[in-house]
Structure formats: structure tokens, C-alpha cells
Design goal:
By secondary structure, this protein is of the alpha+beta class. The protein has a single domain, classed as Metal Transport, Frataxin, Chain A, CATH 3.30.920.30. It has helices spanning about 5-10, 45-55; strands at about 15-20, 25-30, 35-40. The chain has a 3-stranded antiparallel sheet with strand order 1-2-3. The N and C termini lie close together (about 10 Å). The mean pLDDT is about 95.
Length: about 60
């Protein structure tokens, strides 16, 4: 899965960008407690990274 698809899904769920550090973008949600970090731009994310993003965000991305 491409990082751009993940960024789009997060933004559609209400997450907004709070920080960009190098090639990583951090997102925060108005009601959910954690931050989600996405390596962007990246063509194919490893499955472990994708599972971690799903766990942190509460979204099903696959």
C-alpha cells in the first residue's frame, strides 16, 4: 500500500497533520488520544508498519 493512500484515509477520518520531520508525517485526531506517524512519500510500506498505523489510528486500511 502506498503512503499517499494512507494519508488520504487518515484525512478522510478527521486526522490532521501536525508535524513533518524529514520523510515522516505525524497526524493527530481531535478526539482520539494518540498520534500516528506515516513515512511519506513511500511506495510500499512493510506490513508491520501498516499494522502499527492501523492499531494507532483505529482504521482498517487493508
Amino acid at each position: 500500500m502506498k503512503s499517499g493512500d494512507i494519508v488520504s484515509a487518515l484525512k478522510a477520518d478527521g486526522w490532521y497533520e501536525v508535524s513533518t520531520i524529514g520523510s515522516h508525517v505525524q497526524f493527530k485526531h481531535p478526539t482520539k488520544p494518540s498520534r500516528v506517524t506515516v513515512p511519506h512519500p513511500k511506495r510500499d510500506l512493510p506490513i508491520g508498519t501498516l499494522k502499527s498505523i492501523e492499531k494507532q489510528s483505529g482504521l482498517k486500511l487493508r
